[in-house]
């Protein structure tokens, strides 16, 4: 899908189920929603907190600690632009 990164964005139908399977709410709270992975150990999440609405953040799935999130884009559109242009790659996605 993108030339410089592998990204597995979850379908709308699977987002609730996968957030439950990964226990996103338990570890990251109600204000972060997983929307995909890098196909490995990196979670891509949508930040819904009031100070960061719509920001995209990456987390290590093995250590879901809200303080360890890495902001990677200000919006879904910017995320796609960064992946497409090579500004965001599989190498720098990991938190």
TrEMBL record:
Q: Which Gene3D superfamilies match?
A: SMI1/KNR4-like
InterPro entries (alphabetical): Knr4/Smi1-like_sf
Q: Look up the domain of life of the source.
A: Bacteria
State what protein this is by name.
Answer: SMI1/KNR4 family protein
- State the organism named in the record: Stenotrophomonas maltophilia
